[in-house]
Specification:
about 800 residues; alpha+beta; six-stranded mixed β-sheet; 28 helices; 23 strands
Length: about 800
């Protein structure tokens, strides 16, 4: 988008505010422009025309960008100096397999506020932090300022002034064609993984530069020499296409809202040095759009009112026409939640404008938020946003839908609903079902872009058996929050008719939106809002539907990804029952004339991963701790151990379903079509990982700690290990033959226990050495050795007896400390 801009010739005196007509016209035969040019040359500067030649490709906006040959210039108005701007760094294109496939096009790598400063004939771009705060009138402000000195990110000499002297021209190629860590797309961990040797400036360049009224966008290629790039055929290099956005932040700042971890919101950390506490007061503010009622008096009366500026999302022109209605629905589904906050038509979905309707429309323009449709093999969707870190205001967001995410939901629907729902028994999922899934994915990602994080605890609010009820699921969905990971109803059984299989928005979402977006006209500042916000939380206290839990520490079994219902053991039993019904049908359901068995292999392996997920949901109950977020003015405790009977039932489930050989997975009709070998190793890996997860040191320490505090009611670590041992070595105690899968699992048990004991030899981890885990594992191996010695001859199978003898040797090696 190149725009022509007029050259306005003004006197230098006019730029300094002098209004004398004589000076403007120039006396003694000298024009004002001549005087200006002479002054510039005396400072060693070139004339504007010498720098920005006729060959320049120029684009006018926040700054004017000029590409002259291989050089890029910014023409920055003097009025924008010392203004807050947001520099957002994203990866626009990545090599295949980059970051293991978890770093995709569109991934944000940094976000920082910058300001431009003029220093003699040099322009500096400094990074500004708003994390540490103090009132400018406060005595401590000087100290806060002195101890948060702004670093210079980039400097450049002034090349020229505009002809009216209101703008400076600088060359910025060095910023984008050099290795600048603050805008780099290569993280330290990936540098190490790919053995990056150095940045290759000769193969790094600026691809494009575009200016818009409120932002400037620069795309540039960064190339690195690497010994082990993600693709071996890349000639020893990694190239990334980076996108840098320079965004002008508003002068009129939005009033921040203080975060509360009892309600889930993305947030920005702050430190207040004006606090009356005997320390800097750390707090967080939530990330949200600025919504202000058009009719304040009507809003105060409780009427639904439109916002002054609604949230508008445009669909990407590349979005297939058949999916557009579902995308729009997913966006505008949030209007129901915003009505809880007193707003109507708060969020609007629009088709992309035609060239005639808006010739300047561009997804890169910060004025437009866009749902982008990306033709990519990536199976994902993301909902990032750009925020003003001073206030938490969301300035713009781009939802990204990667085309191949359809594949994820097609497969998932077949695997988890195929036993119950005929519509799921095909790789050509009907439009109605796949469209509804897409709608809810978009709604989930829009939720992120509105400021809401994942709420993995939400699903535990519903009784597990309620997910088998048509009336319940049709009204309340699968979970109280669409921000939970609860994609398909795998709890419903074939006899359950009319149930809902796809997630939807729930009561928690409406509650959270009201808490974050309700406009409080009587509150003059953030602290004045807190009493009202706290009251709303206390109104819902004790109701699990309105609880929040991120679910990323792996401790609370009620806050887990993809789990459904309050009872994880029961939910996993239902899920496994359905998987066992699906497996015998996979060959038929994935078949297509003239096609090979790639789809069968893909779906089968994804089914195994879902089986593992069901197992892990149960494992988390063992040594698990429920977390209910509270503040000191609320009754009750924050943490409570999972009851003994639930933990014991979880170990029973694991012995039966995780550690017994899963014969139902070893379907010959499938395996003989997709592989020559590998089934034994696959099952061994799955079972070993589940066992290692179960025997995690942190889990056992929590059990020991709980036993110390609740001796009578606790599921002790000794009892847990005995239950596990008797399950894993059930053949030993029953005098039966052990198959190959179980032999591998039993070796893994001994090896895992031995690894703890061998820490004594390594003398590396003093925390383990001083814990009860060593004593527990040593005791278990000694007990197992004794049982092996006394029972090893009971089996009539010779290989099983050899196996028992091998385990004794492994135990002896594991217990040997030299």
């Amino acid at each position: 988008m190149v725009r022509k801009f007029s050259i306005i010739v003004l006197a230098a005196a006019l730029a300094t505010g002098c209004k004398s007509q004589d000076i403007i016209s120039g006396k003694n035969g000298k024009s004002a422009q001549t005087t200006t040019e002479q002054k510039k040359k005396s400072n060693g500067l070139k004339s504007y025309a010498e720098v920005i030649t006729k060959e320049a490709k120029s684009d006018e906006g926040l700054f004017t960008t000029h590409q002259v040959g291989d050089k890029l210039y910014f023409e920055i108005p003097l009025t924008l100096f010392e203004k807050d701007m947001l520099l957002v760094s994203r990866i626009a294109k990545v090599p295949s397999g980059y970051g293991g496939g978890y770093v995709n096009a569109g991934s944000k790598v940094n976000e920082q506020v910058v300001r431009w400063y003029k220093r003699n004939n040099t322009i500096d771009m400094k990074v500004i932090s708003f994390e540490n705060q103090s009132d400018e009138e406060s005595p401590i402000y000087k100290s806060v300022s002195a101890n948060n000195f702004s670093p210079i990110l980039f400097s450049s000499k002034i090349e020229a002034y505009s002809t009216d002297s209101t703008k400076v021209v600088i060359e910025v190629g060095e910023l984008f064609e050099s290795e600048v860590a603050a805008i780099d797309g290569l993280s330290p961990s990936l540098r190490k993984e790919y053995k990056v040797k150095k940045f290759d400036k000769s193969r790094s360049y600026i691809e494009s530069a575009h200016a818009y009224p409120k932002n400037v966008e620069v795309r540039h290629v960064m190339t690195y020499e690497a010994e082990t790039p993600p693709e071996r055929d890349q000639a020893g290099t990694i190239s990334l296409l980076m996108n840098q956005s320079m965004i002008l932040l508003p002068d009129d700042k939005m009033q921040p809202r203080i975060a509360d971890d009892r309600v889930g919101w993305f947030s920005v950390k702050k430190y207040d040095y004006d606090s009356d506490q005997l320390k800097s007061d750390d707090y967080e503010i939530i990330r949200r759009w600025r919504l202000v009622p058009k009719d304040m008096e009507a809003y105060k009366r409780g009427e639904l009112v439109e916002p002054v500026k609604p949230i508008v999302y445009y669909l990407d022109p590349a979005t297939p026409l058949k999916w557009r209605p579902y995308f729009k629905q997913g966006i505008e589904d949030w209007n129901k939640a915003f009505e809880e906050a007193g707003f109507k038509n708060a969020i609007i979905a629009k088709d992309p404008p035609s060239k005639e309707e808006n010739p300047e429309f561009s997804p890169e323009d910060i004025r437009y938020s866009v749902v982008r449709y990306v033709a990519s093999t990536t199976r994902n969707a993301v909902g990032p946003s750009v925020i003003d870190p001073r206030t938490g205001e969301i300035i713009e967001s781009d939802i990204i839908w990667y085309h191949n995410h359809l594949r994820s939901y097609r497969n998932r629907f077949m695997i988890e609903a195929g036993a119950q729902n005929p519509a799921a028994r095909s790789l050509n999922t009907p439009k109605k079902e796949i469209g509804e899934m897409m709608r809810m994915v978009i709604a989930h990602e829009v939720g992120h872009a509105l400021g809401l994080p994942h709420n993995m605890k939400a699903s535990a609010a519903y009784p597990t058996d309620s997910l088998r009820s048509a009336s319940f699921t049709q009204e309340y969905g699968l979970t109280p929050s669409i921000m939970d990971y609860a994609r398909v109803n795998y709890v419903a059984q074939p006899e359950d008719k009319g149930v809902r299989y796809i997630r939807m928005m729930g009561p928690y979402d409406k509650y959270a939106i009201n808490w974050g977006y309700r406009y409080l006209p009587s509150a003059q500042n953030s602290k004045a809002e807190k009493k009202t916000l706290d009251a709303w939380i206390l109104e819902k206290s004790g109701d699990p539907i309105y609880e929040f839990g991120g679910g990323y520490d792996g401790v609370d079994p009620q806050a887990q990804r993809e789990s459904l219902g309050k009872d994880q053991v029961k939910a996993s039993e239902y899920g496994l029952a359905n998987l066992k019904r699906v497996v015998p049908n996979l060959v038929e359901w994935t078949a297509a004339d003239g096609k090979n068995y790639d789809d069968l292999e893909e779906v089968y392996k994804e089914l195994i991963n879902l089986w593992r997920g069901y197992i892990y949901h149960v494992v988390t109950n063992v040594g698990g701790v429920y977390e209910t977020r509270k503040t000191s003015d609320q009754d009750g405790l924050v943490y409570a151990a999972v009851p003994k009977e639930i933990q014991k039932d979880a170990v029973r489930f694991l012995n039966q379903n995780a550690f017994n050989t899963p014969d139902w997975l070893l379907e010959k009709d499938i395996l003989n079509r997709i592989e020559a070998s590998g089934a034994i190793e696959r099952i061994q890996n799955l079972q070993t990982r589940a066992l290692n997860y179960l025997l995690d040191e942190g889990r056992i320490k929590r059990m020991v700690s709980n036993e110390q505090m609740n001796a009578r009611d606790a599921y002790s670590a000794v009892e847990f290990m005995e239950d596990l041992r008797k399950g894993i070595f059930s053949e030993l105690y029953a005098g039966k033959m052990v198959d190959a899968y179980r032999r591998n699992l039993q070796r893994s048990f001994v090896d895992e226990a031995a690894q703890y004991v061998q820490e004594l030899k390594a003398q590396e981890d003093q925390k383990i050495l001083k814990s009860d885990v060593i004593a527990l594992m040593r005791g278990e191996m000694q007990r197992l050795k004794s049982d092996l010695n006394s029972r090893k001859m009971r089996s009539s199978d010779q290989l099983t007896r050899f196996h028992w003898a091998d385990l004794i040797a492994r135990i002896d090696a594991g217990l040997r400390i030299e």
